[in-house]
């Protein structure tokens, strides 16, 4: 057994080593560790983990994988990848085993395990460059890496920093030339109207354009993305803000406050609220931009006055609303002798007892030839998009009334009845016309150039968003009215 093992060792090691001696004059001690008592253990470890490389460039994990064809294993501990490279002799650069013009002869240890199976071997390690002509025109070769050449500034005469072509130089007002000034803080560059680049420890010009704060280099400056200019962070200007409303005071452009930098910015685009977490926290899905979220206003739809059915839940909710409830017309104010203040959109008490205003209801408007209604139930929320070219056609169809797109504008008649100071109960009775014609219970199926199939849309009757539209056009189908029995 021992003889068989010895023959294998001679076959794998002696023959390749003989070839290596011709190239680099390596000895067995150079390849193997000096501890000759563990030759068998080293051999077993090498063969166990060997990947059997057969040529230069093949993968390897130890010098053992490569030495049989005059190569060594360059192993990267980070990527855990090794490559077989040619062996070389650093003392004989002109020999047959010398490296090419993009390689250097360098000793590399065997990095296969924590216990090195072999001593370091000199190999031809590829490098980025060995001479300047290996790099680009504006680069030079330093320590086998291509780096950008540092061009010394010419003696350019100047009066301001804008006269200096190189942004890494500032104008020395005393010498009247562009110079490279050493610094450690911004204060040392204040006399040159510049800032300190801590990366190079030189005074540089304040960047004229920016997309983010990093472009401004100095921490004392922030990037105002509205005008794409670096400004001092503590300077109060039209673009400096503490809240979103500060951005609307002086600027005519639509902007919001980026509270992380306290500057006004153009609302960035978004797909969801997560994209706006650093600004407004709300993504407007109509414009797909980060905007200030409007306060949620709960609007209760009024039941038709000719509905003689059972009391609905929303009817009782309206009756219990506070007197300063949000309103859009006088009909939203259910408390007696209250009207809708259009300036505040709140119900207010009518303190002028001399006159009582009676407004037309939607059912009375339906008697006109042309009905002007909103198809959608949330038009008030999106009325700002009425004139937006992107949404105008959609708004014209869905929210014609709120957007004032009706061809025949319906004039709401205001009836005034002089009050001779009767008791309050009589004033309330005066609101009710003496002769009330019972409206005909039918479906008003015509809407502009459309014919509405109420039966097919019956599922929309109980949906809050479409209640107003279905009440006007499909009141019979939805059961919002009852046919009067014929005598």
Order of neighbouring strands in the sheet with most strands: 1-3-2
Strand content: 15-25%
Number of H- or I-type helical stretches: 9
DSSP summary, beta strand count: 23
CA radius of gyration is 43 Å
* 3D shape: elongated
Q: Estimate the helix proportion, in percent.
A: 10-25%
Uncertain regions: pLDDT < 50 for 5+ in a row? Answer: 7-37, 234-238, 295-323, 352-370, 408-432
Structural class: alpha+beta
Largest sheet: 3 strands, antiparallel
Distance between the termini: 124 Å
**Global mean pLDDT:** 67
Question: What is the compact description of this entry?
Answer:
With 487 residues, the chain is an alpha+beta fold. The chain has 9 helices and 23 strands.
What can you tell me about this protein's structure?
A hairpin with a 4-residue loop joins strand 2 and strand 3 (81-86). The N and C termini lie far apart (124 Å). This protein has 9 helices and 23 strands. It has helices at residues 2-24, 28-31, 39-49, 313-319, 362-365, 392-398, 424-429, 467-473, 475-478; strands at residues 59-60, 71-76, 81-86, 103-108, 121-126, 139-142, 145-148, 170-172, 177-179, 194-197, 202-205, 221-224, 229-232, 256-258, 263-265, 283-284, 289-290, 338-341, 346-349, 355-358, 415-418, 446-447, 450-451. The chain is an alpha+beta fold and 487 residues long. Among the domains are: 2-126, no CATH class; 150-206, no CATH class; 209-293, no CATH class; 440-487, no CATH class. The strands form 11 sheets. It has a 3-stranded antiparallel β-sheet with strand order 1-3-2, with no helix packed on it. Strands 4-5 form a two-stranded antiparallel ribbon. It is elongated, with a radius of gyration of 43 Å. The protein is 15% helix and 18% strand. This is ShKT domain-containing protein. It comes from Strongyloides papillosus (Intestinal threadworm). Keywords: Disulfide bond. It holds the Pfam family ShK. Disulfide bonds join 372-406.
């Amino acid at each position: 057994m021992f003889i068989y093992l010895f023959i294998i060792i001679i076959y794998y090691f002696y023959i390749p080593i003989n070839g290596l001696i011709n190239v680099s004059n390596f000895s067995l001690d150079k390849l193997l560790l000096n501890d000759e008592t563990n030759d068998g253990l080293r051999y077993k470890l090498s063969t166990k983990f060997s990947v059997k490389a057969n040529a230069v460039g093949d993968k390897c994990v130890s010098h053992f994988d490569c030495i049989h064809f005059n190569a060594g294993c360059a192993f990267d501990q980070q990527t855990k990848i090794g490559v077989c490279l040619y062996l070389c002799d650093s003392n004989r650069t002109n020999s047959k085993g010398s490296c090419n013009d993009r390689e250097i002869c360098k000793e590399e240890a065997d990095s296969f395990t924590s216990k090195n199976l072999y001593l370091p071997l000199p190999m031809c390690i590829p490098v980025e460059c060995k001479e300047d002509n290996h790099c680009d025109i504006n680069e030079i070769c330093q320590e086998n890496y291509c780096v950008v050449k540092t061009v010394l500034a010419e003696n350019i005469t100047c009066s301001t920093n804008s006269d200096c072509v190189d942004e890494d130089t500032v104008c020395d007002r005393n010498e009247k030339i562009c110079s490279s000034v050493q610094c450690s803080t911004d204060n040392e560059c204040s006399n040159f109207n510049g800032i300190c680049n801590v990366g190079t420890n030189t005074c540089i010009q304040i960047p004229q354009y920016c997309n983010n704060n990093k472009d401004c280099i100095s921490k004392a400056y922030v990037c105002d993305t509205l005008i794409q200019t670096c400004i001092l962070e503590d300077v109060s200007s039209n673009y400096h803000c503490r809240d979103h409303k500060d951005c609307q005071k002086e600027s005519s452009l639509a902007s919001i406050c980026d509270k992380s930098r306290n500057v006004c910015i153009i609302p960035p685009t978004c797909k969801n609220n997560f994209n706006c977490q650093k600004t407004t926290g709300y993504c407007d899905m109509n414009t797909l931009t980060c905007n200030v979220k409007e306060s949620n206003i709960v609007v209760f739809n009024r039941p038709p006055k000719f509905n003689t059915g059972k009391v609905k839940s929303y009817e009782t909710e309206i009756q219990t609303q506070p007197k300063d409830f949000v309103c859009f017309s006088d009909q939203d104010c259910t408390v007696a002798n209250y009207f809708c203040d259009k300036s505040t959109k709140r119900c207010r008490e009518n303190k002028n007892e001399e006159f009582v205003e009676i407004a037309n209801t939607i059912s009375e408007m339906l008697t006109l030839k042309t009905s002007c209604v909103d198809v959608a139930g949330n038009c008030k929320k999106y009325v700002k998009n009425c004139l937006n070219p992107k949404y105008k056609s959609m708004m014209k169809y869905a929210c014609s009334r709120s957007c004032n797109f009706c061809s025949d504008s319906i004039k709401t008649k205001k009836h005034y009845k002089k009050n001779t100071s009767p008791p309050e109960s009589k004033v309330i009775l005066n609101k009710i016309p003496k002769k009330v014609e019972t409206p005909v219970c039918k479906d008003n199926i015509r809407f502009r150039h459309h014919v509405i199939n109420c039966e097919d849309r019956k599922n929309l009757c109980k949906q809050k968003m479409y209640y107003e539209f279905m009440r006007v056009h499909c009141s019979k189908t939805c059961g919002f009215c009852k046919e009067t029995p014929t005598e």
